[in-house]
């Protein structure tokens, strides 16, 4: 479609036909469309390649389709609209003028490609002009970015008018279209390996794996799954997957919104003859599938992101926890418990972490009504309501299943901790704090296995908190313990370990010597020497108590 002179390019013009002379007048009189906050939009399009460099002063963005920059036309648009700066080079002085013009025309945001250039000057201009400046990854095509923004904005507009999300019917129609275009039975999956849609064209061969996946709407677990999915998500194009055993070959591709993985498409290659034309067709279909999947998902994404932010604030605690709990639909009284899931960061790349979040969220929310999940940093927190003592066993069993499944299917080693039970919403932040401490113990190797609960390791948690207190108040530490640890570090001796073990074992020389693999005479000599070196009198109960505690806490500092 060719735009009329004097207008910015846009796919659809609302209202009566406009000429160059009256565009500005019509725009200023037009009804302001619904809007969305920039943070909300960025959350919906998380990891799509968009980064914010300046938020500007405009509190809301218009839910109209993005406008495309045209160097031959004046910069004009709806208030709060997004302008895609196609062809603008950050190093070109004219780009600075376009940012100013966009701000003056009422645009809420402008999107540029950084192209490995320093854009601090443009950021300053945007801040002063009051327009949000976004940069998109150089690898993301403008056409795809336009489609992603249009889908997110139009879905947000529909969501603001109706609470019902878009159904999955379009995905089934898309699966049939892909099956006809590529030439094989097709399934569309999310990151959790759940079958969202499948084709139903006659005379297309399938195998038992596909049949089971359709019946259960879940890809059956097989030992080769992890390697196959890894090859699909590591590739930017279609991948041929060799069938194992009785399974037929597949042609598969990851579905992405920019850089963010959304799922995958799998086409049965019954005869092994899907060629480069089929690959190209599947790659084009993946772009279309991204729009469908983003649209279907993002109808609930804004509400989900809002719940996540509320849960994040609830876990942090504060004076407004009662109000936050009401907005989440939680009762004032519990009991509540927080479970924390932390992956081994040496194994968890971005894709694995996203799939892990989906796995944990799906399993927790389906396990128990009223469960809420949120990712903070690299830790996933699940808040369980009505977590009475009788329910803790099933929550622990769920945690252990997730440890096993994440290791088998992602594969990522997972550490899981359960915090202390909270009687009211005010105690939820404490439950999260205890879960974090247990994770710290698991990561340090001070607790065996990959799962532990605050109830099981209560004494160790107390020592960890005391260690933090001693770290902040060094005068609480026994001077003799500090000197002993420093002496051992310089001299290569084991006086601190010897005394700590001796006190741990109630001053039983025989047990201490056995625990340290020493002769009792050697132990007695060490005890005499440390008394002489550090002025220790074990006949003073109070001093001995502080000394013993300090020796334990020194290990945790």
TrEMBL record:
Record's keyword annotation contains DNA repair: no
KW Transmembrane helix (keyword) present: no
Span of domain CdaR GGDEF-like: 319-439
Swiss-Prot/TrEMBL keywords: DNA-binding
GO molecular function, one term: DNA binding
Domain PucR C-terminal helix-turn-helix: residue ranges: 496-552
InterPro entries per record: CdaR-like_regulators, CdaR_GGDEF, PucR_C-HTH_dom, PucR_C-HTH_sf
Any coiled-coil regions, as ranges: none
Signal peptide feature range: none
Any single Pfam family the record assigns to this protein: HTH_30
Family designation: Belongs to the CdaR family.
Protein name: DNA-binding transcriptional regulator, PucR family
UniProt organism field: Crystallibacter crystallopoietes
């Amino acid at each position: 479609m060719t735009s009329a002179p004097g207008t910015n390019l846009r796919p659809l013009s609302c209202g009566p036909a406009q000429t160059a002379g009256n565009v500005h007048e019509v725009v200023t009189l037009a009804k302001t469309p619904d809007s969305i906050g920039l943070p909300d939009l960025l959350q919906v399009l998380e990891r799509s390649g968009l980064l914010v460099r300046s938020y500007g002063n405009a509190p809301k963005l218009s839910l109209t389709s993005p406008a495309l920059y045209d160097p031959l036309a004046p910069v004009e648009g709806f208030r709060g609209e997004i302008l895609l700066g196609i062809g603008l080079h950050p190093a070109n002085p004219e780009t600075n003028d376009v940012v100013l013009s966009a701000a003056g025309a009422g645009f809420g945001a402008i999107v540029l490609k950084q192209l490995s250039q320093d854009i601090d000057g443009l950021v300053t201009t945007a801040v002063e002009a009051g327009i949000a400046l976004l940069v998109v990854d150089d690898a993301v095509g403008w056409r795809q970015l336009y489609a992603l923004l249009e889908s997110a904005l139009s879905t947000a507009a529909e969501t603001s008018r109706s609470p019902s999300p878009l159904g999955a019917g379009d995905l089934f129609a898309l699966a049939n279209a892909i099956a006809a275009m590529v030439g094989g039975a097709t399934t569309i999956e999310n990151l959790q390996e759940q079958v969202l849609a499948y084709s139903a064209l006659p005379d297309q061969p399938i195998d038992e794996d596909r049949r089971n996946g359709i019946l259960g709407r879940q890809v059956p677990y097989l030992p080769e799954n992890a390697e196959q999915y890894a090859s699909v998500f590591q590739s930017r194009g279609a991948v041929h997957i060799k069938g194992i055993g009785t399974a037929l070959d597949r042609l598969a591709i990851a579905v992405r919104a920019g850089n963010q993985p959304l799922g995958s498409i799998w086409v049965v290659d019954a005869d092994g003859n899907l060629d480069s034309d089929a690959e190209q067709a599947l790659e084009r279909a993946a772009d279309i599938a991204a729009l469908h999947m983003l649209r279907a998902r993002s109808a609930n994404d804004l509400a989900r992101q809002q719940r996540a932010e509320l849960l994040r604030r609830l876990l942090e605690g504060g004076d407004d926890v009662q109000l936050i709990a009401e907005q989440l639909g939680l009762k004032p009284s519990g009991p509540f418990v927080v479970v924390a899931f932390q992956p081994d960061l040496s194994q968890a790349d971005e894709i694995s972490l996203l799939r892990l979040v989906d796995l944990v969220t799906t399993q927790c929310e389906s396990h128990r009504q009223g469960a809420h999940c949120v990712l903070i940093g690299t830790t996933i927190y699940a808040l369980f309501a009505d977590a009475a003592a009788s329910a803790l066993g099933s929550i622990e069993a769920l945690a252990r299943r997730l440890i096993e499944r994440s290791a088998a299917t992602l594969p990522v080693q997972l550490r899981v901790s359960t915090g202390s039970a909270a009687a009211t919403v005010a105690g939820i932040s404490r439950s999260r704090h205890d879960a974090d401490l247990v994770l710290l113990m698991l990561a340090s190797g001070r607790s065996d296995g990959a799962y532990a609960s605050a109830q099981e390791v209560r004494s160790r948690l107390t020592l960890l908190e005391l260690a933090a207190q001693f770290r902040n108040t060094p005068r609480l530490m026994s001077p003799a313990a500090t000197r002993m640890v420093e002496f051992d570090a310089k001299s290569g001796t084991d006086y601190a370990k010897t005394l700590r073990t001796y006190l741990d074992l109630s001053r039983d020389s025989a047990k201490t010597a056995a625990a340290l693999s020493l002769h009792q005479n050697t132990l007695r000599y060490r005890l005499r020497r440390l008394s002489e070196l550090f002025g220790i009198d074990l006949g003073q109960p109070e001093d001995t108590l502080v000394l013993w505690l300090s020796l334990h806490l020194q290990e945790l500092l």
